[in-house]
Amino acid sequence: MPIKLFNTASRKVETFQPLNKKYVSMYSCGITAYYYTHIGHLYTYTTSDLLRRVLEYAGYDIRHVMNVTDVGHMTSDADEGEDKLIVGAKKENKTPAEIARFYEKCFWEETVKMNILKPNTICRATEHISDMLHLIEQLEKNGYTYKTSVGVIFDTSKFAAYPNFAKLNLAKQEAGARVKIDKERKNPWDFALWVTNQPNHLMQWDSKWGKGFPGWHIECSAMSMRYLGETLDIHTGGIDHIPVHHTNEIAQSECATGKKFVNYWTHTAFLNVNNTKMSKSLGNLYTLQDLAGKDFVPLALRYFFLGTSYRKPINFTWEALNAAQTALVKLWKHCLELPAPACEVLAPYIKNFEEAIYDDLNMAKALAVVWKLLESKEDASKKAATLFHMDKVFGLDLANARTQLSNLENLKKENLISKDKKYLEKEFKALKLIEHRYLLKQQKKYQEADAIRDQIKKLGFSIEDSKDGTILKPI
Ligand code: AMP
Ligand code: ZN
What pTM was computed for the model? Predict the structure, then answer.
């Protein structure tokens, strides 16, 4: 059965045809390792994991490469602002390398919890500087660069296809959208390949253009080509990368090699929270840790992602996550009741399942097949075999349903204990404050004594004075 994939490059659903018969090359833009991984990141990486699993299920051998950006990603996706790694390092009073290794480790831990398969190759930008310099040299040789006082710049006007991928409108853009960052740049879209003359930047390497550091975009071009060759089968990322990062990756790679860079581009839409953008400043940026605090296991989030199309923005709400976890628990409980799997799977269900997953990863439709199967009167051991077979793609750990259910129960218990502990700590603080208030009143410091009432309120208690003493009540 052919695999259909939506290709951002053509904006069409296409039949997947790998370049090489032996393996599929797949590159995923990794995180910029300067802060914790949030559930929006996990939406994008779950999508690439599902794609990889579908291809593996179909019998392809996958070479999956993912980078870690640990230098060069400015606070804007274009060249403006400060390097995110340096911002993180300053904030936490650590070196950029310490920041990168710490958040990188956090990221891999989160992916394991989400049952996201580890890429075959993981590459850090700081460990591939010579590959980047080599590529920039090639671009220079081919006549696509010019120098300014702040580095080596890619001349987008030399690459006629530049606006095509993101359907950029040059006329509109000129009117103001992506403005010229400095006066020396020839075109508003031009971007830095190598940044020099930044004495305060903490990460610098020698180069023929002077001491400096790479632009973010050249990292992915250099590392993907290093491990997967000049033309890749698949490149993945989130939709925010289409207009700048991936557009620039295409320009650099194709101008350096003269070959097509990527055959299939897949982009995951954004995860929003209550229909608004998830951001730290709005206080709605959630991590798996936040979910755990509310009794949700990571695979509930995975199940939630399976219920939608990766091309549609997903709206995260606690109610929706709760519905996902309820369904997953039901599924795990069903699995507990099933006998050992038979050797044979139920072909009609597998057929429907494959039709769904090969249809541009229609996971919601594939999950519907699971529920239909569970409701059916088919032989239980064949049901088990069929379910476990499908779970190679879903990644819901159905074979370990008992462990998963007990993990969930343990999480709930731990949360209850920690809630009790927190309550007791607050109660203890409030009782101490009552003692202090009593002393203040004896010293006739009534104003200060009144202020303590407010402090107690902040801890979640009210107080009532009676002839027998002060009574503490939870609000
Ligand atoms: P970054 O570390 O910012 O480069 O992001 C890593 C990946 O996560 C990129 O592919 C982004 O497109 C993706 N991403 C970031 N925020 C979200 C979000 N809210 N929803 C979906 N994907 C996201
Ligand atoms: Zn990238």
Answer: 0.90
